[in-house]
Amino acid sequence: MELGSWDKAIIRSIFSTFVPIAGYFLVMGWLAENNNTDFVGYLFSMVIVLATYLLFSVVGWCVIGFPVHWLASKYFNQSLWCYFVALVLFVIFITGFVGMFGAAFYGSAAILQAGLFLYWLRKLKT
Length: 126
Hints:
Layout: H1 6-33, H2 39-75, H3 80-125
Helix pairs in contact: 1-2, 1-3, 2-3
């Protein structure tokens, strides 16, 4: 059973997904405040968002991502259907806790991370 360079792929997918999330929060914070003088407040907010995002991402990969990748590699020959089913179940599960908007936000982050993970995994393998 070949798992590939999963550790490098996970790290790259986590940090590649953070860029659009950080951009979203910077733009939304700027639009909400419409005040260009509070740059330190934006920077501090980004540090908090980064820390929370990294915590949720690492926990998510340990609890959901890596077991799904292991199962897909061992039993399903890394079929994309395994990742798709796991993502759909994740979005359905998270909807009960954070509602539709939160599920769309966390689900899109999870889909982007999973897609980048599979891309980096295949790219690093060759």
